[in-house]
Write a structure and sequence with these properties.
Length: 898
């Protein structure tokens, strides 16, 4: 709906409204939040359009806002181009409010647009607003369970049953607004009057609960009615007290011994009166059909124990007991509104094949390695048991391969109640799998139906890309699915075995790739708080975040290694370039400085040989090992350069960081460069880091490039890198005139390569290049994941160079696009669309005979700097600028790539 007839003629409009980086924040952590939006051309996209002014309108009524009535704030027409950094300009936003806001923009003709479809914001609660208490089931033994009683709730994992909680409350009238504020130490599902509230899973997510817990604000207005009402919740152990990590000496109870719920419901009536229902000692609890639910063990659900009407009024309370009010140790966690999107079910897959191993055992292949669980639909007699075992691969005999899961059992058990059609899916566990082995113990009425369900933190998908090469399309799919599988509250290393940590180096090498496929702005904002929570008083960032589960013998987090502890600075800078977000850099400036001080304190000579902690090096390299001091020092120089850039962005003094970088470059040259210009550590990764981090004197760069190419040729045209080297491989080659070799490596299908794993059935990125080979079979069962994203870091190069969509450092947030496409006839065509912070950028090219036809669409206000490969030309030349709008180019090649 437009606010004026004139508005319909505007060439631009605001789309994808974001407040605090979210489409709909479920609570705010600032009374003065940040706003942003993208632009879209309404007509004549071939012309150049841009924004000249903007207006934000905010109020408590969606309809009023759409009419241009801003009861809370109307910025008025404000001259300026598009920005992703508009700070709230009204009075401080109050607590417990639902706000609506919209944006109107003016184009280059000074014509206003329609007001955009209003977006909703829950303002949330401040610390002083909380009246609720943490509650849970009565105290249990330190292991987290009752004394063994030979009951269904006993299990060899010492995993707790899920706890059911309820509270009845009578209302004199139906409310006009009701908002529930909910958190858990562990995981929760909320119910009101028998209705499941929301679609979130694994809520509220993982933090260091000793320091911070996040809550969600949920609109529950329609769930309440006049008269008796009932609020219910189910809570599970999750990351709080369940089994996570690979240390079996301390399998669970990393943060506490039992889960707890925090719930506060604000109910507003037509007469203005507000009631508040809180979690306290008046609630009741009992156990039900979820006999246990644990990330690593799995879930057991006995449908014979179902609690009919447990979250409806007038329930039989004869077996319910009072809850206990819990004071979490060592202190109450700080309560923050959720900073990123919740985890949700995002895809459902039917099996592509079913193989019967016996009358009672079958293996289901879902055709895709994913993180999630299986929905089981059955008709069976009472007591029939269904066992679902999960695995990523099959062994040579066609059996489910589970040895690489280590101590993760990954088995869900459902016991039928015999009530006809029954459906089961676990609530508080997930698995990494492509294959499921179903064992049926007992009679069934009809064959069961299985559907796999993928879950992830629901970061909006921003990139769509496909090519003319089948293998490359599968690689892109594998990268996307590995990201999806490992973006669950935090960016994890793997979703299947007994680990699932937020390893920092895995994420930092992959982060540029991740930002193309999904909007990672809110996700990193949340995870950066986890990393800061794990920073030591001395300034050491951790190897993993959240930090508590790693080591039961340390009371403080494990300090980070080079490239691991360095990750926050690297990702913070990349976040700024992708989203133009000053606020995150400002938040992190002091923690970044503390890390640099921590490293420098023990390395005064400029060579990073101390304060190394675990010092992993080029993890899982398959070639000669790279000197770790060289890797560490190269990263340190890179960090100093980034700190200088960040200082300039924040209007701070960059000179001290430039001085450090100069001193360290001299030390690097003295320590690691031979007289012939080669590096003392003569490996692919050494040259890749030295070149990409620009640590070499200019006179040695060409020698380093030549030696890198020689090393690749000596490896029979194969890569020999680990986690740290792989990200730089194709970018360094293509930046130094070896584009053809970069594409050669990308498309290679012999071991080791991306194509090798795909040729052998990979549907996600493997942790190890040799996760499986014809000669040796499976790699070590001690560490062999088939769903890790680190080696998918090549995705950033596919997007930035093959598709030609890259950020431009001087105009961050994709206000300008750098386009340096690599056209290769073996790929044939590329079609890419990226929903950048500034708008949708499209780049598509195809070969027809010897001519390349390239179409580009730039959103309003976004221009591009184009640089064609050597020997290629258009009517505009080989280097030129493009204005916003749609462009069709004809590219001719005068010579082939090197």
């Amino acid at each position: 709906m437009c606010v004026s007839v004139q508005a319909a003629a505007s060439h631009v409009s605001a789309v994808r409204l974001r407040c605090e980086k979210l489409a709909e924040p479920c609570g705010l952590n600032s009374s003065y939040p940040m706003f942003g939006w993208a632009l879209e051309a309404n007509q004549s996209p071939e012309d150049s359009h841009f924004q000249t002014a903007w207006r934000i309108v905010a109020g408590t009524s969606r309809d009023d806002v759409l009419q241009g009535l801003g009861a809370l704030w109307d910025s008025g027409k404000t001259i300026g181009p598009q920005t992703n950094m508009v700070r709230w300009g009204g009075d401080a936003l109050p607590s417990d409010m639902i706000m609506w806001w919209s944006v109107q923009v003016w184009d280059e003709t000074d014509t206003p647009s329609c007001l955009a479809e209003p977006a909703r914001v829950f303002t949330g609660l401040k610390a002083s607003d909380w009246q609720a208490s943490w509650i849970g089931r009565y105290f249990v033994l330190p292991a987290g369970r009752d004394v063994p009683q030979d009951a269904l709730y006993d299990n060899r994992f010492q995993a707790r049953p899920a706890d059911y909680l309820r509270k009845e409350h009578a209302l004199v009238a139906k409310p006009i607004r009701a908002t529930a504020y909910v958190s858990a130490l562990g995981l929760y599902e909320l119910y009101i009057n028998g209705m499941r509230i929301g679609e979130n899973v694994m809520a509220p997510g993982w933090t260091d609960y000793h320091q911070r817990a996040e809550y969600h604000a949920l609109d529950v207005t329609e769930a309440f009615f006049e008269g008796d009402n009932c609020i219910g919740a189910i809570i599970g152990e999750g990351w709080y007290s369940g089994r996570i990590g690979h240390n079996q000496r301390r399998a669970g109870n990393h943060y506490g011994g039992r889960p707890a719920l925090l719930c506060q419901v604000h109910i507003e009536f037509a007469d203005g009166r507000v009631e508040c229902i809180v979690s306290d000692e008046t609630w009741s609890t009992r156990q039900g059909p979820i006999c246990y639910s644990d990330f690593l063990a799995g879930e057991m659900f006995d449908a014979r124990l179902e609690l009919e009407g447990w979250c409806a009024p007038d329930c039989d309370l004869s077996h319910w007991q009072p809850v206990e009010q819990i004071d979490p140790e060592p202190r109450l966690p700080q309560l923050d509104a959720a900073r990123c999107e919740p985890t949700r079910e995002v895809a459902r897959l039917a099996p592509c094949s079913i193989t019967a191993l016996s009358d009672s055992v079958s293996i289901y292949d879902f055709g895709q390695n994913l993180a999630g669980y299986v929905e089981l639909e059955v008709e069976a007699r009472e007591g029939t048991e269904f066992r679902l075992r999960h695995g990523e691969r099959l062994d040579n005999a066609g059996q489910l391969y589970t040895e690489n899961l280590r101590y993760a059992v990954s088995e869900d058990i459902f016991i039928a109640a015999g009530r006809g059609g029954e459906t089961f899916k676990p609530r508080f566990t997930f698995h990494g799998f492509q294959y499921v082995e179903l064992t049926i113990i007992g009679p069934v009425t009809s064959p069961p139906k299985l559907t796999s369900i993928a879950i992830q933190t629901d970061t909006p998908q921003t990139g769509q890309i496909k090519t003319g090469n089948t293998m490359l399309n599968q690689l892109l799919s594998n990268i996307f699915w590995s990201q999806r599988s490992n973006f669950i509250s935090v960016p994890t290393d793997c979703p299947q075995r007994d680990e699932r940590y937020g390893w920092t180096a895995d994420a930092q090498v992959f982060w540029r790739t991740a930002g193309y496929f999904m909007d990672t702005s809110a996700f990193l904002t949340k995870w950066m708080e986890d990393m800061i929570d794990g920073q030591s008083p001395e300034g050491a960032f951790p190897d993993v975040a959240p930090t508590k589960p790693l080591n039961p013998y340390r009371l403080t987090p494990q300090p980070g290694a080079p490239a691991w502890g360095d990750a926050p600075i690297i990702m913070g800078w990349q976040h700024y370039l992708r989203y133009g977000d000053h606020a995150l850099l400002e938040r992190c400036w002091q923690p970044f400085k503390a890390w640099m001080t921590y490293v420098e304190a023990e390395n005064p000579d400029g060579i990073r040989r101390n304060q190394l902690n675990n010092n992993y090096g080029d993890w899982l390299t398959i070639g000669p090992e790279t000197n770790r001091e060289l890797i560490n020092t190269a990263y340190w120089i890179y960090l100093a350069d980034l700190m200088a850039k960040i200082a300039r962005v924040l209007d701070r003094d960059a000179e001290p960081w430039l001085t450090r970088a100069t001193r360290m470059r001299a030390a690097f040259a003295g320590a690691f460069i031979e007289k012939n210009g080669h590096l003392k550590s003569d490996t692919q990764t050494a040259y890749l880091l030295a070149l990409d981090f620009d640590v070499l004197p200019s006179k040695h760069r060409s020698q380093a490039v030549s030696r890198l190419i020689e090393l690749i040729n000596e490896a029979d045209g194969h890569l020999q890198t680990g986690f740290l080297g792989v990200r730089h491989l194709c970018p360094v080659l293509s930046d130094n005139g070896a584009e053809k070799l970069a594409v050669d490596l990308l498309l290679k299908e012999t071991y080791p390569s991306w194509g090798f794993s795909i040729r052998h059935g990979a549907t996600s990125i493997w942790e190890r290049w040799d996760g499986w080979t014809q000669d040796k079979g499976f790699q070590s069962k001690a560490m062999n994941s088939f769903n890790h994203y680190a080696y998918g870091a090549v995705g950033e190069w596919i997007w930035s160079r093959l598709a030609g969509i890259d950020w431009y450092e001087e105009k961050p947030g994709y206000q300008r696009v750098q386009m340096r496409p690599i056209f290769d006839p073996r790929i044939g065509r590329v079609e890419a669309a990226y929903e950048a912070q500034s708008g949708c950028i499209k780049s598509s090219w195809r070969y027809e005979d010897e001519v390349i036809y390239w179409t580009i669409t730039l959103p309003p206000g976004v221009d591009a700097q184009v640089l064609l490969p050597v020997g290629m030309m258009t009517e505009q030349g080989a280097q030129f600028a493009l204005a916003p709008g749609h462009h069709t180019l004809k590219v001719t090649a005068t010579k082939t790539m090197n």
